[in-house]
UniProtKB/TrEMBL annotation, chains A, B:
It catalyses: thiamine phosphate + ATP = thiamine diphosphate + ADP. Mg(2+) 5 binds at D250. It comes from Anabaena azotica FACHB-119. This is Thiamine-monophosphate kinase. Residues 245-334 form the PurM-like C-terminal domain. Its EC number is 2.7.4.16. The gene is thiL. NCBIfam families: thiL. Catalyzes the ATP-dependent phosphorylation of thiamine-monophosphate (TMP) to form thiamine-pyrophosphate (TPP), the active form of vitamin B1.
Length: 359, 359
């Protein structure tokens, strides 16, 4: 008898995909065309006490904030504006009501920034605390950001620094390791872990840039050979969004690899261009810093692939820590290039991980 | 420190409502106005192994069917057509993959009847098996069926028999008690428990009847003093749906009481009119039969309040076991009248329950 642990959560999800229509899954969220002008975007997450959050490192307010942020980030990664979330809770009878209210307080604080209501929920008895959030949003069908739409020649943009959330978690687990950091630096890294910001603010900039006819025309040429799923309505090439992307919740390396796999392309990343927290400079070796940035996860930034001119404009408009970190190639590999170091390019690979990084 | 068990799940839900906008909660599902022509309806449920399902009485296929049916029933109770569901699973590593696939098989079998896809999900590690489903559907804003819209004089319609699901559960727990029933009768009651049908089929009949101008005019007179939530757009009186309702998932008594509380009205039910499974006639006392019907729950029929003429037409069209079981009164109590028995009317009350029923 095959058990869940024998094939893992990812293996099980793959087996269960045969119960789902092939054209709505495999992205940060599902897209349902309900209307010619608006598609419904839906994403769901379950979080279990001791697995995804723990009172040791996470207050109930922060657990709530992080859960809400993760779901809003999935919507942002699809280009969607949030409409609301539902919250289902499984709770042991001995849990304090105050804990639950604090969890809701944290969720609400995150959601209110984006005028997103909690529109419903369920509370049930359970031997273990667990939390399931479903977020839904809407997007014009021509503005859906899909993983599988990256084009050879696209620039790869990240909307902010990577590695901060992982560093914050490390500091919470072992404050000792931060003794060479200033209090401000420590607080900033810990905040990056406890209160990540979904990057919904990026979308208006992106649409404004892409509505510029220059990029539209450029894109219509690139996209004409694309083959959308046969079950989806086929938009005219001019109307397709010239942007692919996802969020970096599972790490920057994962995001680039997933986009490349879904798009049937490769990428070259320039290690020196990956934006890192400034505190890393005098704290971590460059190898550690890159490990945190590529594999740490939970930074909840967007990783976007778009035509180079549009990418430059986007990075300028976002300012701060947004950067072009590489480009999409016709290869099938994702290479990490080290401009300033005398080490060869490395092939990024999730199963192999970054442990093999050595000069 | 107040604990969850001190105030119960319902008490906690009430406390958490302050985090939600007041105009979207308190019904079978939340309604979000996304468009003048379509509202989005969302409902969510969490089910926990040992609390809501158990391998003792429920195969994984049946657990999946029931979970899907309960969510589709909530959509039907709002007048909404389903668009899709998401499924989040918490699973122990030792669970068999086959169990999970069977759960999905059962969900899919129920959903396929209504062309409803599973559009996304999450699978996570958890010490206990749990399942969270979020279903979403759409409805024209003028056709939303709300609990709080019952009017004095409305007839109360149930779309089918009550008590069958509870009887089926009893038979599964103790097959001995069914020895006076035929195999067919036993199988029918068990099926009612294991494979309940959400009554989405009722909606087209309902709209056809209510689109008849006779009922529309009648309703515009009744509804003119209604005060919709100040945050919702106010439809013209002619366009309001002359129907209130919810599903009977928590029992028929609960449904009528909830509708009356939300509408600020009362009701008189005629006990002899409540449709019961025919097997009850030679199996249960009339007291037991009424107890099962009123308090058993999980029959997933619709309880609808609408003008008497429209109600008669609906019952005729639905045929089978649909019936008018009473009417809405200007009282605030829900009375159970016993036409054929020499016992006084009883006041239905959830906290008191039906144990006090005695001649």
């Amino acid at each position: 008898m095959t058990k869940v642990k024998d094939i893992g959560e990812q293996g099980l999800l793959e087996r269960l995909q045969r119960f789902c229509p092939p054209d709505v899954i495999g992205d940060d969220a599902a897209v349902l065309v309900t209307d010619p002008e608006q598609s419904l975007v839906v994403t769901t997450d379950m979080l279990v006490d001791g697995v995804h959050f723990s009172n040791a490192t996470t207050s109930p307010e922060d657990a709530g904030w992080r859960a809400a942020a993760a779901n809003l980030s999935d919507l942002a990664a699809m280009g969607a504006t949030p409409l609301g979330i539902t919250v289902a809770l499984g709770l042991p009878g001995d849990l304090s009501v105050n804990w639950v209210e604090s969890l809701y307080q944290g969720m609400t604080e995150c959601l209110q920034q984006y005028h997103t209501p909690i529109v419903g929920g369920d509370v049930v008895r359970s031997p273990i605390t667990s939390l399931s959030i479903t977020a839904f949003g809407q997007v014009h069908p021509n503005r859906i950001i899909r993983r599988g739409a990256a084009q050879v020649g696209d620039a790869i943009v990240v909307t902010g620094v990577h590695g901060a959330s992982h560093a914050g978690l490390k500091l919470l687990l072992d404050p000792q390791i931060g003794k060479h950091l200033t209090t401000t630096e420590q607080a900033a890294l810990i905040k990056a872990h406890q209160r990540p910001q979904p990057r919904l603010d990026v979308l208006p900039h992106l649409w404004k840039i892409l509505d510029n006819s220059k990029f539209k025309i450029q894109n219509s040429k690139l996209r004409i050979n694309n083959s959308p799923s046969p079950q989806s309505p086929v938009p005219s090439p001019q109307s397709l969004t010239p942007v692919a992307g996802m969020d970096s919740s599972d790490g920057l390396a994962d995001a680039v690899l997933q986009i490349c796999r879904a798009s049937g392309v490769g990428a070259v990343l320039e290690s020196s261009q990956i934006p890192l927290p400034t505190a890393f400079d005098h704290w971590l070796t460059s190898e550690q810093a890159l490990n945190y940035a590529l594999y740490g996860g939970e930074d909840f930034e967007l990783v976007l692939c778009l035509p180079p001119e549009a990418a430059k404009t986007l990075v300028q408009q976002l300012g701060q820590d947004a950067a072009i970190i590489g480009s999409i190639t016709s290869d099938t590999k994702v290479l990490l290039h080290h401009q300033n170091q005398k080490i060869p390019d490395q092939v990024l690979n999730l199963s192999q991980g970054f442990q093999h990084f050595s000069p």
